[in-house]
User: Fold this.
Amino acid sequence: MIKTNFFINLLKPAGMTSHDAVNCVRKIFSEKKTGHLGTLDPGAVGVLPIAVGSHATRLIEYLQAKIKGYRAEFTLGQISDTDDLYGNITEVNPQIIPTEEDVKTALKEFEGEILQTPPASSAIQINGVRLYKYFRKGIDIEIPKRKIKIYSAKLVKYNYPKVIADIECQEGTYIRSIASDLGKKLNCGGLMSFLVRYKSGQFHISNAFSIEELKLYSKTDKKIFVTISEAMADYPDIMPNEQIIEKVKNGNEFFWKNEENFVNDQLLKILNQDREVIAIGKVSIEDEKTKIKCEKVFL
Assistant:
């Protein structure tokens, strides 16, 4: 029996839902408490980090909001009712073929905070019902726009009708909506024809593992487990003394000298003397005194 409470950097294949991927990992490691750090569409491939164990799954809320990175292929001159290849496709005959500069400029306009309309076939809920359920029944419903943030949208290669772009964005961004909106900006129509997620927070495709590799984990010397500390490497940490750790065990707040100059509401890792993560703390500064409040305790 292996020690649980770790993360797996899964390389999800095409044709598999995120839910099915979690089930595969659950069976491989015989651990009921599992969950992913952000849905990846069945047709997409790439990084799907999965938390394994009760402590790891309690950290999903902190990790799934991290920056996601995608390499997307968009096909211009076509539109789809699902904004990708899996819907009903209609050919568009544009009067003008966009130039490479046109595409670069249009992609640049997506950067920053923008309002995005999710695809009609997406899984977001309206009135307690998943959008795709309305879609499958042919029911038209008004879809509210949502504020998202695109950190960068860069053209990698263009050879009409194919556009290859790298997009880094926040959680909740629909890349196929960007494909559709790009086609509208260029007056030629567009859909997403392929998608690879190459990063999700600290997890990168360069060290992701396939399901088949995970099944053979006991026969390999590769490091397939990502520790809680590694998954949260971009969070600062503190290592209090035993007296304070006793307070942490009970979920109590404590004062901190704050030589690190933490700011109000900042999240951090609380470590024991073995540098194991024992809690997640939140900084609270009142009257120039710094308190650390325990948000999650793993003792």
